[in-house]
Amino acid sequence: MSAHALQRNIAVTAPPSMCLVAGKKLSAQDIYPQLFDAILEQRIVPTSRFTEESLAHSFGVSRSAIRRVLARLADQQVIILRPNLRAQVAAPDTHHMQQVLQARRLMEVTVVHLACAQAKPAQISQLRELIAQQDECTERRQYGSAIRLAGEFHLHLATIAGNRPLAHFLNSLVPLTSLFVARHDAQVYSDCAGQAQMAIVEALGRADATIAAARMTQHLEHLQHRLGQPDQG
Asked: What is the CATH topology of the domain spanning 94-227?
């Protein structure tokens, strides 16, 4: 994939809030969702290898900014970085993903219990806004963006819980799940994830940890079942 082709695809298909702005120098925070969306939408696939130089040219930024984005994606297991080799998109298999989702179920039940005890109205509103943005992307068939936002919902919930080691652990599992979902169940997941998340938010708003935990477990068990099925394409 050429740098010009990657730039064209990102500029055209990125959601309006992330479109490139003339005269604005993009930060690593701006670039991250665009590059992650390109990966989730399979404009960059596991067989693609891309360089800091090509991405820096595409986004019109320094290689150091790209390096920060790639490091973040590597920490999240979305890409693989090796010394003296080009970055490569990860390709987790079904067995590994089943283990990831088992770990997530255990951790995220704890997350919702902690979040129910600490969530402020403004934080609950932010969760609702993430769901709304996700639904808008799904309506536009921007499934990569919708899946990324669905993952951000879970990470934001972990932030609300206030346990940094737990949030850090989930940060290495949720984006990897998003990558696998995008390849195997993108449209179906995008269509139903918002409903499942809204049920969690409703319970959170009532500080009902039992229901919130039950809804989270149900959501992740459903996801684990779907992603364990062959040929979901």
From this structure: Four Helix Bundle (Hemerythrin (Met), subunit A) (1.20.120)
